[in-house]
Write a structure and sequence with these properties.
Layout: H1 17-32, H2 39-49, H3 53-58, E1 62-65, E2 70-73, E3 81-86, H4 93-99, H5 109-116, H6 122-127, H7 133-139, H8 142-151, E4 156-161, E5 168-172, H9 175-187, E6 191-196
Helix pairs in contact: 1-2
């Protein structure tokens, strides 16, 4: 069997491109294998392919703990429109976690806060912050500039870096506002996608 994957998501952007490819391939194999592959088999295989693969298999809002092996499904009120933007800076996850000092976060507080707000909106979760963002900005200041640019766009409800970076996102009130922000940032050389969730 030969597998060809066309990658449209920037590498090293914190968007889970590789993990989502692996999850999609597992699902395809499950649906097309001669013998049915049960979901439990996929969940056993997924962590060996990458820490984010189990989350991509779930395909919905969730909370991950540990190194991604423990997943709790969440009920999040959908917002609708999101802008993704990448400064085209490769940001290895290991680099960010190595630079993250113990004092940069309070163990357990973030997980508890998220689980307590499981019925909240995406904007409310974003407002809780991303402990990795300041560390990533130290490594690549353009990330901070990009978050600020997104925040200042008309209709932006919240903006933040994705995961360990380097991509950023903004949640918008309307498709037109998200599309306009994407076009503006693309004109400045950023990779952008305006979509819904």
């Amino acid at each position: 069997m030969a597998i060809h994957i066309r990658k449209d998501i920037p590498v090293g952007a914190g968007l889970g491109g590789g993990s989502s490819n692996a999850a999609a391939l597992l699902r395809w194999l499950q649906e097309n294998a001669d013998g049915a592959v049960p979901d439990v088999s996929l969940s056993e295989i997924a962590p060996s392919l990458g820490a984010d693969v189990p989350a991509c298999l779930a395909g919905r809002a969730l909370q991950m703990t540990g190194i991604g092996e423990t997943i709790t499904l969440m009920s999040i009120a959908p917002h609708g429109r999101i802008l993704l933007a990448s400064p085209r800076v490769f940001m290895p996850t290991k680099t960010i976690f190595t630079a993250l000092a113990q004092s940069d976060f309070a163990i357990g507080e973030g997980a508890n806060a998220v689980s307590q707000s499981s019925a909240g909106s995406v904007a409310e979760l974003v407002a809780r912050g991303n402990d990795l963002q300041p560390v990533a900005i130290e490594q690549a200041p353009i990330i901070g500039d990009l978050v600020q640019q997104i925040e200042t766009q008309t209709g932006c409800v919240a903006a933040q870096m994705t995961g360990s970076g380097s991509a950023c996102f903004g949640i918008f009130e309307t498709a037109e506002q998200s599309d306009a922000a994407a076009a503006l940032l693309a004109g400045q050389g950023f990779w952008t996608v305006s979509t819904r969730f």
